[in-house]
């Protein structure tokens, strides 16, 4: 694979505060995918364990180790296919990051535990898990508040529906949750482009901003669609945005380097 492709680089505003590196990654339950036909020929890996999964997760953990906050989509919380391993916990430990939390969106018992994950170098003050509306149940958001209650940092991780109507309802719910919060990061696999009507509505209602240039994330072997996003509120300065050209999933991860306002502390240090 080639080196990561930088999509935008900016100088942070003078007098900025803490600098954070943030990663959002749909890890495809640890399945490396490099062809469309793998969805058929490797489909059994979504229900049964295989030795290569843990090796691939260790590669993802090494990537994560360079970041401060990581939002994960399509992780398993411990079932047959993952060898009863909570993948968020495993990735956190392998990456040397002390805090982790997950939210199971679809509980299929022994077969699969479809989940979101949040991994961080600092423990949040508060964690909140919620369902998101949709025609088919099984979507949710995982949120955390970092730092002092007066000037905290809100982080939201989500994986949205394939259908536009359900996605609109889910983004409206996220916008309502985030609206009015001065310092927020919203990230995940949104299954829609940055110029889609539902994404524009989210930005308008919640006061969130995207990097100016598109970051193509899907499919990982020939990225043509910008489906994975990290949005921030205007007071958070974006110092750089990129997709990381790694073949550990069917999506590419999105990375953002941000500078918080001087008065906002996401943790110690």
Summarize the SSE layout with pairings:
Blueprint: E1 5-9, E2 19-26, H1 38-41, H2 52-64, E3 69-76, H3 87-95, E4 99-107, E5 113-120, E6 126-131, E7 140-146, E8 153-159, H4 164-178, E9 184-189, H5 197-206, E10 228-232, E11 237-243, E12 254-259
Parallel strand pairs: 2-3, 8-9
Antiparallel strand pairs: 1-11, 2-12, 3-5, 4-5, 6-7, 7-8, 9-10, 11-12
Helix pairs in contact: 2-3, 4-5
Q: How does CATH name the architecture?
A: 4-Layer Sandwich
N- to C-terminal distance: 35 Å
Uncertain parts: 1-14
Top-tier CATH class: Alpha Beta
- What is the overall number of helices? 5
**What string, H for helix and E for strand, traces the elements in order?**
EEHHEHEEEEEHEHEEE
The total number of structural domains is 1
The CATH homology group name: Endonuclease/exonuclease/phosphatase
What is the residue-averaged pLDDT? 92
Shape call: globular
For the biggest sheet, the summary is: 7 strands, mixed
Number of DSSP E strands: 12
C-alpha Rg (nearest Å): 17 Å
Strand order of the largest sheet: 1-11-12-2-3-5-4
The structural class is alpha+beta
CATH topology: Deoxyribonuclease I, Chain A
Strand proportion, as a percent range, falls in 25-35%
- What proportion of the residues is helical, as a percent range? 10-25%
Protein architecture, described:
It is built from five helices and twelve strands. Residues 1-14 have low confidence and may be disordered. The chain has helices at residues 38-41, 52-64, 87-95, 164-178, 197-206, and strands at residues 5-9, 19-26, 69-76, 99-107, 113-120, 126-131, 140-146, 153-159, 184-189, 228-232, 237-243, 254-259. Helix 2 packs across helix 3 (87-95) and helix 4 packs parallel to helix 5 (197-206). With 269 residues, the protein is an alpha+beta fold. It has a single domain (5-259), classed as Deoxyribonuclease I, Chain A, CATH 3.60.10. The strands form two sheets. Strands 1-11-12-2-3-5-4 form a seven-stranded mixed β-sheet. 19% of the residues lie in helices and 30% in strands. 49% of the residues are buried.
